[in-house]
């Protein structure tokens, strides 16, 4: 069972996760336009992850007898001037996601909805990974600076990222 408050908050998060996929696709498109195919691949995979996050929550709402609602969302940022700006934007976005997950967890804890707390723990753990990954890559890019050779090396590394649905791992 889900209270109306928790249901509304979960539905807003489904929307946010889907909109995150669009944010990352816009970043992928920018990287592609700069001939950074590996970086583009990294963000396409990230967009897949966000869609997975959204669908996992959509399914959970249904499982608990709630009705998932699908909303539209605003255009993502499409204009970037560097990969550093892209990763800074990605990290800033993940910080917002982390705050939102924590707020959702607050509601679930206050309502003593332990099924929801257990479900949201997965997202808490996921956000630790997301923040660490984005922070690590942003720091690398800052160190690399203008070195095109190092950017090329990182691009080759990021080209190898693939999407694996967590359940299949
Ligand atoms: Fe997410």
TrEMBL record:
GO molecular function, one term: oxidoreductase activity
Subcellular location per the Swiss-Prot or TrEMBL entry: Cytoplasm
Domain Ferritin-like diiron residue range list: 1-145
Alphabetical list of SUPFAM superfamilies matching this protein: Ferritin-like (SSF47240)
Top-rank taxon: Bacteria
CDD domains, per the entry: Nonheme_Ferritin (cd01055)
Keyword Metal-binding: yes
Ranges annotated as spanning the membrane: none
Reactions catalysed according to its record: 4 Fe(2+) + O2 + 6 H2O = 4 iron(III) oxide-hydroxide + 12 H(+)
Keyword tags: Cytoplasm, Iron, Iron storage, Metal-binding, Oxidoreductase
Primary enzyme class: oxidoreductase
EC number(s) recorded for this UniProt protein: 1.16.3.2
InterPro entries documented for this protein: Ferritin (IPR001519), Ferritin-like (IPR012347), Ferritin-like_diiron (IPR009040), Ferritin-like_SF (IPR009078), Ferritin_DPS_dom (IPR008331), Ferritin_prok (IPR041719)
PROSITE patterns named among the record's database cross-references: FERRITIN_LIKE
Pfam families per UniProt: Ferritin (PF00210)
Range of residues in the leader sequence: none
Function per UniProt: Iron-storage protein.
Protein family membership: Belongs to the ferritin family. Prokaryotic subfamily.
Protein's UniProt name: Ferritin
Protein source organism: Alkaliphilus hydrothermalis
Lineage: Bacteria, Bacillati, Bacillota, Clostridia, Peptostreptococcales
């Amino acid at each position: 069972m889900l209270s109306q408050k928790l249901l509304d908050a979960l539905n807003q998060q489904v929307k946010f996760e889907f909109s995150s996929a669009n944010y990352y696709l816009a970043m992928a498109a920018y990287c592609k336009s700069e001939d950074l195919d590996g970086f583009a691949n990294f963000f396409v995979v990230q967009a897949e992850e966000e869609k997975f996050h959204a669908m996992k929550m959509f399914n959970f709402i249904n499982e608990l007898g709630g009705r998932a609602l699908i909303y539209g969302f605003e255009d993502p940022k499409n204009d970037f001037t560097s990969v550093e700006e892209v990763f800074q934007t990605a990290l800033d976005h993940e910080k917002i996601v982390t705050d939102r997950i924590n707020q959702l967890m607050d509601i679930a804890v206050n309502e003593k909805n332990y099924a929801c707390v257990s479900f949201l723990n997965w997202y808490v753990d996921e956000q630790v990974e997301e923040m660490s990954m984005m922070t690590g890559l942003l720091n690398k890019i800052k160190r690399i600076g203008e070195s095109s050779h190092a950017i090329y090396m990182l691009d080759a590394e990021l080209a190898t990222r693939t999407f694996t649905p967590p359940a299949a791992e």
